[in-house]
# Entry
Amino acid sequence: MPVDRGDGIPNLPTPFPNMSTTEVKTQTLKPEEIPFHQPQLMSRYITDTGKILPRKYTGMSAKQQRKVTSKIKSARNLLTMQ
# Structure
């Protein structure tokens, strides 16, 4: 709703009052960049029984799937995932 400032020109509210011109984008890790010592991040790529999900369900490329698979296997060898 316009408000008159007294000089005859209405003071219109800004359409996006909370919008900043310097937005900071947070980068998420790519699947192959997930560190093997954080199993909670890798849990979306395995089933409840510990099997690695195939590409059909994860939606990753073949290259990403190979890297995630090797990270999961190395985490298993270090006993960080169960």
User: Anything to note?
Assistant: The longest strand covers residues 3-4.
